[in-house]
Amino acid sequence: MPSFPTIFFNDFVYIIFARRCDLPTLRGSCKSSHKSAKSIREDWSCHTRQRTTEMGRRILNDALRTIVNAEKRGFASAEINPISNVMASFLRIMKFRGYIKDFQVHDPQRVGRITVELLGRVKDCRALTYRQDIKSKDIENYKTRALPTRQWGYVVITTANGVLDHEEAIRQNVGGQVLGYFY
Prior knowledge:
about 180 residues, 9 strands, Dna Ligase, domain 1, alpha+beta, 3-stranded antiparallel β-sheet, globular
């Protein structure tokens, strides 16, 4: 009888019956027909590390989607968890431009949460999971492509002077990376 790799988790024994790696998280990583439990654990930890870095890029996008969904449902406030400093800067710009009423950061030293008081003015806001570099002369063209009209909405850019909206970045004549937009 062939020996199958076993993995021990919390007093349960999982035996993997596979000649090839048919598990979705390990697909394409098998070089032999059977793997030891140690190598499977190493592959698993590598894949979880990749997932957490992807999630780090999407934290802002998930928070902004939470705000949009709360606005569509007519809620007075939205709870955002986990948080980051970039998210607080993005919300500060939204508050300054009158799209949200106020926000409060609770316990920022740990995982933390942000409570956002809504006004019902946000139609859509998104964060880019890829950071697109933009020069100060190209900001106006990017704004017309990203936003639905010229009358309202803001593109948020992280610059050397901090996180700014597109109007402030044009006024200061600085470029940077596009974080997202809201209207």
